């Protein structure tokens, strides 16, 4: 599902402008130095520093995990007494402490396989940094994005323990207010996060639901 990784990017990944920005991005450089698979690691690290979502012993699911930077961060933080379950439509290289399934989250059979991996253990946390493959049509792409977000919220509803938390990337625009209202019906508090590692021009923000009802 982070198959689906690039969303509403104004510049093509092959464009000179994108390449220049990418190569000179301090978070890209830090990720290479620190051994993270993507700059997105710093988004989760910053949010976790503020909200203390992941700690030793945490049981969590990482939806849309490839290439694996969020799973890398999570596996280090949960330690040997915790567990990370990860899922993506793309392959992901092995990470110690992470149980991974490759498949399309939209397919019932893949979801069943993932649920079998959990073994009926209620989760403390669900994290989700996925976005759909882009068609170039903003209306269609926004609708596809929120369809995935709805599926992730359903998963959180079914597998989080009472009091659990849910962190998801969303894009401001059509569907945002409705999705926010839906999260507020499931969690006692819902907050927005825009970590420094999130590019300013991006419409992405993170919604954090705490204390599942």
Task: Outline the structure in words.
- The protein is α/β, with parallel strands linked by helices and 213 residues long.
- The protein is built from seven helices and seven strands, in the order αααβαββαβαβαββ.
- The chain is globular, with a radius of gyration of 16 Å.
- Mean pLDDT is 90; it is low at 1-11.
- Its EC number is 2.1.1.166.
- Belongs to the class I-like SAM-binding methyltransferase superfamily. RNA methyltransferase RlmE family.
- Residues 36-212 form the Ribosomal RNA methyltransferase FtsJ domain.
List keywords for this structure.
alpha/beta, Rossmann fold, seven-stranded mixed sheet, 7 strands, disordered N terminus
